[in-house]
Amino acid sequence: MSLIDELFEKSDKKIVKSFTPKSSLCDKIFNLEGDPSLKEEVRSKLLEITNEFLEYLGIEFFVYDIHLTGSLANYNWSTYSDLDIHIIVDLDEFSNGKEKTTTYNEIVREFFELKKKLWSSTNDIKIKGHEVELYIEDIDDKGVSTGIYSILNNDWIRKPEKNETSIDEKKILQKGEEYGKLIDDLFNRAKNGENVVKEVDELKNKLKRFRQSGLESGGEYSYENLTFKLLRRNGFIDKLFNIKTYVRSKKLSLPQ
Predict the structure, then answer these.
(1) What pTM did the predictor assign?
(2) CA 98/CA 75 separation, integer angstroms
(3) Which of 158, 191, 223 is the last residue of a domain?
(4) Closest listed residue to residue 171, CA positions, set 216, 218, 204, 205
(5) Which end of the chain is less crowded, N or C, counting CB atoms within 10 A of the terminal residue's CB?
(6) Helix H or strand E segment including 187
(7) Distance (Å, rounded) from C-alpha 107 to C-alpha 231?
């Protein structure tokens, strides 16, 4: 095994160790005395960040609520965790009385996703060492998170429960390595001039189905979801998404 392989193996094991549930919520984010609540300085800053993001979007709409969700609203938080802020809206509002279609809905979602990515690429905002990720969520979307905190109302919508689930570290590492090799192979083939766009899309869809099936059957602690988190935290998800960009750039460029 090369030194690089050893470093990656140690890094992946450290990431997988971070999935083990904690005995309490993150004390940098929550007041833990009595019924846990967001620290006021954290809540105020998250509201400020959200307002800045809403101004950045450049369009007006009604905000039904602002949720803190994900691992930092749960007992599976770690140093890798982001503050996942979901801004709850009604996507039907943007139809402006016109006939609602699936395509129209997808365009609206794509607009918000692109604006989110632009925001993330030009801002490096952290709260107590944790990055802040903002999302627009439709009021009809069914979330799977077991912990949801209303930042607007300063109260729990869904309180997380302590989970004694044991993490099968070996299974996660093995599956992560399997997907990692597939991504590496596609990346190397793309570098060698092959058009692997179709295969990249197929693997992205496979990963999406893999994670979703785990969330539906076993929740946030399912090995499928934790494998996906491993791939995201060790950079392989970004690597997969960047392959199409590389292929497209090479295809559209004209060498000297």
Answers:
(1) 0.81
(2) 43
(3) 158
(4) 218
(5) C
(6) helix 169-191
(7) 28
- Closest by CA to 123, choosing from 66, 64, 63, 55, is 55
Element holding 181 (H helix, E strand): helix 169-191
Q: What is the mean pLDDT of residues 203-213?
A: 94
Ramachandran category for residue 159: left, alpha or beta (phi over 0 → left; psi -120 to 50 → alpha): beta
Total of domains in the chain: 2
| Distance set, CA 218 to CA 1, 144, 165 (Å) | 34, 10, 11
The total number of residues shown for the chain amounts to: 256
Residue 129 to residue 243: CA distance in whole angstroms: 30
Over the stretch 118-170, which tens digit does the pLDDT of each residue have? Answer: 999 999 999 999 999 999 999 988 776 779 999 999 999 999 988 777 788 89
Rounded to 5 degrees, what angle do the CA atoms 128, 161, 229 make? Answer: 55
The answer on 130 and 206 residing in a single domain is no
Nearest CA among 134, 31, 15, 8 for reference residue 78? 15
The pair of three-digit structure tokens given for residue 170, joined into one six-digit string:
């070996």
The range of the structural domain enclosing residue 195 comes to: 3-13+165-252
DSSP H helices, the chain, are: 3-17, 40-57, 102-122, 169-191, 197-218, 223-233, 236-252
Which amino acid appears at position 223 of this protein?
Answer: Y
- 116 and 176, same structural domain? no
CA gap 212, 222 in Å, rounded: 10
Residues 142 and 228 in one domain: no
b vs e for 22-45, b when ≥16 Cβ sit within 10 Å of the residue's Cβ?
beebbeebbeeeeebbbbeebbeb
Phi-psi region of 126 (alpha: psi -120 to 50; beta: other; left: phi over 0): beta
